[in-house]
Amino acid sequence: MRSEAIHADALYVLGDLFEFWIGDDDNTPFASQIRNEFKALTDSGVPTFFIQGNRDFLLGKRFCKETGMTLLDDVCTIDLYGQKAVILHGDTLCIDDVKYQEFRKTVHKPWLQWLFNRIPWFVKKRIVAKVQSDIRDDKQTKSLDIMDVNQGEVERVMSQNCVNLMIHGHTHRPNTHIFELNGVKTTRIVLGDWYSQGSVLKVDSDNFDLQTRPFDTELK
């Protein structure tokens, strides 16, 4: 953040920045540190954008106001040095995982989030711990293919947004996929996770560079 992003024209965070974001009222030292880092970045003049992931879908307007970030829609088109791209977290592309999509639809209901944000902090932590445990158990019974994106849905979203470049995360399978869509060479770039290493897509006017590096190695 301090050595790389400070020099960027913009920073886009495509969700799952946190293991689980319980709410914008999180005042733990870790949450406060993250707020301060983003605030310092936006104060320096770097536009910073955030798309909610499946682990931080409760990150909202209060956090963005405190940090100076802009909260984007689930699916958003942007201009990357003259090339139109669609960016998203990526979980909405995994339509073969019907059970997850039903869960996602439920937890994104405004009335449910409104209610959750108004219960005591210690109760929220217990609920989240139970949800995380259930999710871990559920994943053990699913095939990797079901938890990956559906190619037909990828093509539908790209066609709908009139792009030949898509960037997303969620699946934790960093890669660059090249395929043909409507007779045109098309690219889908997948970001990796941030458990044991960092995963960053650096973009300039000449290049798209997907980098996976250990945390103790400075990005170049």
TrEMBL record:
Calcium found in the keyword field: no
EC number: 3.6.1.54
Gene Ontology CC annotations of this record: cytoplasm; extrinsic component of plasma membrane
Cofactor note: Binds 2 Mn(2+) ions per subunit in a binuclear metal center.
Keyword field: Cell inner membrane, Cell membrane, Hydrolase, Lipid A biosynthesis, Lipid biosynthesis, Lipid metabolism, Manganese, Membrane, Metal-binding
Cofactors demanded by this protein: Mn(2+)
UniProt-recorded Gene Ontology molecular function terms: manganese ion binding; UDP-2,3-diacylglucosamine hydrolase activity
Enzyme category, top tier: hydrolase
Principal location: membrane
Binding-site positions, Mn(2+) 1: 16, 172
GO-annotated biological processes: lipid A biosynthetic process
Lineage: superkingdom: Bacteria
CDD domains: MPP_YbbF-LpxH
SUPFAM superfamilies per the UniProt record, alphabetical: Metallo-dependent phosphatases
NCBIfam families in the record: lipid_A_lpxH, PRK05340.1
Protein name per its UniProtKB record: UDP-2,3-diacylglucosamine hydrolase
Species of provenance: Vibrio campbellii (strain ATCC BAA-1116)
Source species taxonomy: Bacteria, Pseudomonadati, Pseudomonadota, Gammaproteobacteria, Vibrionales
